[in-house]
Amino acid sequence: MAQTKKSVSEFIQDAFCPMVSVLCSYDAETICRKNNLTFAELIQPFCRLPSEVGYRDPSNNLIVLKNLRLEIKDFNSLPPQNTLAKKILNDSVSNALNNVTTNNEREIHSEQYQLHIKNTTPWFDAWRDCFLRISYGGDHEYLKNYLACVMVVSTSHLDPMDAFSKLVQQQSLQQQQSPAKLPKWFMPNIYKYFILLHDVTEGEESKAVSVFGDLKQQYGAGNCHLLQINSKRAGQTSSDINEAMNMPDPWRLYVKQSSSSNQKQSQTLSNKDSSLSDSLSNLTDLIDQELNLTTSISHPLGSFNTSISDLPATIDEGYDGSSTGNISTVIHGACLTLSDHDRIHVFMHEFVTKGLLPWVETNLKTFNEQITSRRGIKKIFSMPKNFFGGGSTSASKNQPSTTSTNLSNDSMEVVFRRAADLAFLFQHYELAYTNYHAAKRDLSRDQAPTFYAGVLEMCCITNFMQESATSRTYPAQYMDDAIELYTVTCRLPIFATRCALVSTEILKARESYDAAVQQFLKLSQEDSDLRGALFLEQAAHCFLNYRPSYIRKYAFYMVIAGHRFLKAGQVRLHALRCYNDVLEIYGKPNWSLAFDHINFTLGKQSASLNQANDAIRSFNALFAPNNRIQNAQQQINFFKEYLTVFNQITNSETILPELPVPLVENTTIKVLLAGHHKPQMGGHVSNCNDFDFDETREVWSDLERTITAHDRRASGTRTQLNLFTNRTHNQQHPIAVANETIRIELYVRNTLQVPLLLSEVQILWKFSSNGWKRKTSVSAESPEEWKEYTNDTATKQTDQPVECDILSDCIIFPNDTSKIELSLRTHRPGNLTILGICYRLNILVQNISDQTTWPYGIMGKTLFHVKGVRLNSNRRERLNTIYAVDNRLEIQVVPEAPLLHIEFSPMPAAMFCGEVQSCLVHLINTNTMHSITRVRLITSQPNLITVSSLDDTSLLTYTNESQSLWNHTLHQHSSVLTLVNHHHPLLANSTRTIRLWLHASNLAGEMNIDFLFLYESDVFQQPLRHRTVKHSSLFIITHSIGFHTQSESTGLGELTLPVQIDNQMTTPNSLTVNVQQLSCISKHWNIKNLSPKTPNGIRYGENLSLLFKCTHLENDNDSLQMKHIYLGNDETKTDQYVDISKNPMGDLFRHFISNLDYTHSAHRHKIIAPVPIPSISLVLLWQIAIANQLGQYEIRHGLHMISPKIDIPQTEPETNDTIQYELIYSSVVEHKFTKVLNLPVELKLFNRANKKFRLQLQLTRASLDSDPVLSSCCLWSGMTEQFINLSAYEHLSLNLRACFFKPGFYSLGNISLAIVDKINSTTVPIKSNIHNYFVDIRTLV
């Protein structure tokens, strides 16, 4: 809102100050030009009196004048012509925008908005002051008429007195000519003042004194003044010039030095003879043209790059006389000293106090006498008229003209007005109000509307200016009526505008913002775009002063003001300012349409002013992702305009602009330090080169730390990562290798309703060679190392250190997301920063004509903005939103190094439980210069993995010996496998193949094995001491067989091992599992097969029961013995046995026994220690014939290993053998299992004591499995518990029945017999004479 350092009263005093004309002779002007000034300009800075002065009113009351200011103008000065006046007003608004200070802001807080709005509008102040200064008075008022004329002649004139006489005559002729011409005078008898100007350095002082004496004698001592100036000569040397520049220059704020001012002077002199009525008509046309921009004028704002020095310097005074125009560099007052300044001050004070104020006193008294006498006469003549009821009707009066007052110069109303204007100019507001009000009372609207409107205007102003105005009610209705009369009836918008300017200041001072808004809006019609824009903006600021603030109304009227500024044409920067001020308000939700309108206008106008960044930013906001109201056609139109503007403003740009669409989802950005590896050996490459590979699992870091735990060279080396996402810890910079591919994956989203076409898509990067390693000396650094490269340029560059792959095109459908994968390679070490992507943007439309309007689209960029994980470790981080550092896009590039490719062929995808398969692992060194010195492998399940040479193609190694020694010791090996060592390095551009054996787990389901290959080279250095290749394989494990056993002691030195092998496949099939061999590995036991010869094939749903007997082995040297039992049906291979000790069987067995005791795991230890060997271990070999994809049968081998727990019988204490019992039954039974087999069993009891016992018999079911079908013990039928009384020496037989459901080898030992002790309520168990009872149930063929 318009604010100033001074009060409203001081503003009004400066707006309506006494006018004085200066008429100089040629010789006087010549003297003044030594100071680059005219005489009127010379005294202009001294026109405000620093002290108070006073005069007497007609009632002899002392009127004190405070801060009195006179407006001094040259006699020949006239209002500027129409074109120049319009340019001055436009310049005052335009130039004020360059001088705006940003620190003068106010904060407005509400529930929805937090705004910072400029508290001042200096452009409005400048326009208002300029408007009041160049506007001229009308015929109905005398405020802008000259009260006095100052005649100036120098002592250098040949006849000064004659010159004065001619000047007086010139002024009189001009005032008396008919019709009247400009300048206009306050009254016929104006005040004349005479100045004799004396040049001290050139004139004769005696002549000056003599002439001044004659002057006082002729015109009176109070009306004359001798003014001495130019006390020093103009500087000729540099020191004189510097001294002149150090002198105060009070004229710099007032002097007009421009070609336009010279043009104005020439025009005013050429049109000097124009009539007074014509000048008023021209003035009206001037304001009309200022309010209607029909004339096209070149304006500095038309070109954004126009410098301020090219603009014309104009006076733009504020309330305090300050100027906002350009300051001239010309030195003023070079011949004046401080004493000369004081003399001018004295002259002005004497002119006012001794000449002008006495003249004012005299004329006020004269006006008062005229008013008093005429009031008496009027009262006498009005009494008979009122008594007889006479008077003319309004119909008899002529219709008045709106361009004249219809009042003569000696009419009562004119006298009232003249007296009131004189009192008002000299701060006698009470007398002025009385006369204005009297004139208003005597006039009517229809008689003289212009005069009546002027009286109403001044009544309001004088009412406010009186000292008691605070207690009075401001007559705002008077000003409203005056504005309406000026606008509608009189059609004089210049005076209506003046009314509004003064009245709104008064209303704002009284905090009547509502009334001020109404007056601003009255004069914001379409007849004046510049004035309407300024007034609408002021009305908008008034809404902010409401309680509470009307923020949305403020925004609405600011938008309208911006629109009017655009229509004004030459002040487009102000239109941009208005739109920018409300952008934050309409940026809230539910204002999408208004927000789009503002951004669209800002984009177009910023582009026309060559403000490229602002234009692009505004257009980008049109395609914001949260805009859901725009339809497809509207977005196409926006894009058309965007393309047009874009091509206009980016021709001279050196960097690519940022495009609004598509939207990059920054959380999906992935950086992979590996390229696409194609199989070279026909297998599968490691899947760590895929973006879907998960490197965030802790298993990878654990595996890498296991390898490097005892490696001194790798100490201090961080864990190697190739894939960086938003889930990885990105505090450290990724480490890439020169000449290797870096891939970027991201997702982009199309938020528009039309499909987008991206072409020429590539990564936007920045690269510098400095800082990649520790410098040995600063002097060794070349300028090339500190040079920074980037492809963020509008033109293509050559000899770049980074090579980018270009994606030809990518279509993104409306409201859809698309994945983009890009890659690049660096050719030298340094620091690489991924900035974003650059591409050519276009849209796909169905209308071919629309498509051809922009066939090439626009080239721009989208920057990446990544942030780390949110921190939540302390209270400060929990209370605030703080994110960790994310350096995934700032890559450190090290010199070229070896690169290892891993390829598997073939890698099995599905296996049976316990199956053993092999695959080939190809180690490929792709580097052509450096070799790889060591490659090590570690897996997440080292007990299932072993390696061998390429020549070891067979899993099974046969021997003719059924019993042999384990020919090598079993040690607990490290889980780290060395594939390449220093003695046999992997040379450059070479391949090495090894065989990897995989042993499937005994648990069905999914089995995942993680492989970590760590390789080293002599060229590696910090921070890259080693590199890794990761691979994760998923295997589907299906059921094969179940291998169960339980050792039972039959006496000292003997064990029985019943073994049950089940086909556990879950789905019916025709596959047959063939059991090949059972091997016993032990130091103390030898095994023997007790089972008869049976078929070794086990189909779906079948099982195989075998019985083995273990005898104690005398082993003096404590060697590990192996005993192989052939279980196949091929009689030709009964003497061929598989040697379990040979690799890879030996390694798999060692892994098996190493994992029996988990406390001695070697997963994290490299120390080789002996493996604790169990008492007995059984290794079962089996095979399955299965058809492959080609229909050919292949044999798959499997391996199951168990270590049963051995309970060696110890010497037992003496037990109760009073009661003895045994079971009598058939040991071998053949039966057709069409029904259940019931085997009769006889239980014989014998009491050896001479006493009676009560026995408890329990037939329990103690099995290895809960399923009776799979049980190794029989199932008893009948009564399972009974009590028996056995007399002394009695023999007793009981008949029992055992039930069997399928063939097998069963135990009858699940019988419990005990003596019941009635006294102690306990039972004493009875042991049988025979330790075990077994029965062989066979199928009857």
TrEMBL record:
Every copy of the TPPC8 C-terminal Ig-like domain together lies at 1219-1313
Q: Where in the sequence is the signal peptide annotated?
A: none
The TPPC8 second Ig-like domain covers 913-1029
**Chain spans, region Disordered:** 256-277
What InterPro entries would the database entry show? Ig_TPPC8_1st, Ig_TPPC8_2nd, Ig_TPPC8_3rd, Ig_TPPC8_C, TRAPP_III_complex_Trs85
**Start and end residues of each TPPC8 first Ig-like domain:** 695-911
What sequence ranges are listed for the domain TPPC8 third Ig-like?
1048-1203
Annotated Gene Ontology cellular components are: TRAPPIII protein complex
> What name has this protein been given in UniProt?
Trafficking protein particle complex subunit 8
